[in-house]
């Protein structure tokens, strides 16, 4: 396995129909090859709370795990020129540790993410545009405070998260009348210190540019803090359809360069990670 050329396209965050995406593994792999992608990481949702997804519609259920792995392996065999890496996006909430460890067994990459505030059976989904009750009840400032507390708890958990995904997800509705009124700098400093102290990577995601946020996750101010803290990054599109695979990855490299980064971390098919220089 050769080292990646500087500035190669590696998409570290994608979803298929097995969770809440639109494409098959085959379709996502074909789209990655067409986009000039060197490394494609599959990260379907796993371990969402039952109260968040009672019918198992937006995640891989435990019963589906064998079929999910087989479909991924078939796509990998059909696309030998594309380096495919098997992973999951594992949602964190209090008490999730056993399920995450058991269901993600065999994954080469585990993205840690927070979409749910509160306990497993008594909480709220913070980025569901069809249900903004938690935003109305708590207000944006308190949602941010609780999200950062949960994100840091996920960082500090014993789970083997390789990357912490979309670290400033509450920015999702900032342009829809739900922007915070507080100065986020102290919360950002807390996140950067937590990621540094816990030895975590964080994701630089292009998804916010497609979802009306008008910015990357994380935005420049937070990304600069991660950089100053020495926190490595991995870049992903969070693609939920084939057309979005590798979307904006090279532009994200330039964004990272502007924040002070000179490299990004990329998972490899042998289970290791490579630090790839940016161009």
TrEMBL record:
<dbReference type="InterPro" id="IPR010140">
    <property type="entry name" value="Histidinol_P_phosphatase_HisJ"/>
</dbReference>
<dbReference type="GO" id="GO:0004401">
    <property type="term" value="F:histidinol-phosphatase activity"/>
</dbReference>
<dbReference type="InterPro" id="IPR004013">
    <property type="entry name" value="PHP_dom"/>
</dbReference>
<dbReference type="InterPro" id="IPR003141">
    <property type="entry name" value="Pol/His_phosphatase_N"/>
</dbReference>
<comment type="similarity">
    <text>Belongs to the PHP hydrolase family. HisK subfamily.</text>
</comment>
<dbReference type="Pfam" id="PF02811">
    <property type="entry name" value="PHP"/>
</dbReference>
<comment type="pathway">
    <text>Amino-acid biosynthesis; L-histidine biosynthesis; L-histidine from 5-phospho-alpha-D-ribose 1-diphosphate: step 8/9.</text>
</comment>
<keyword id="KW-0378">Hydrolase</keyword>
<dbReference type="GO" id="GO:0005737">
    <property type="term" value="C:cytoplasm"/>
</dbReference>
<dbReference type="GO" id="GO:0000105">
    <property type="term" value="P:L-histidine biosynthetic process"/>
</dbReference>
<feature type="domain" description="Polymerase/histidinol phosphatase N-terminal">
    <location>
        <begin position="10"/>
        <end position="94"/>
    </location>
</feature>
<keyword id="KW-0028">Amino-acid biosynthesis</keyword>
<dbReference type="InterPro" id="IPR016195">
    <property type="entry name" value="Pol/histidinol_Pase-like"/>
</dbReference>
<protein>
    <recommendedName>
        <fullName>Histidinol-phosphatase</fullName>
        <ecNumber>3.1.3.15</ecNumber>
    </recommendedName>
</protein>
<keyword id="KW-0368">Histidine biosynthesis</keyword>
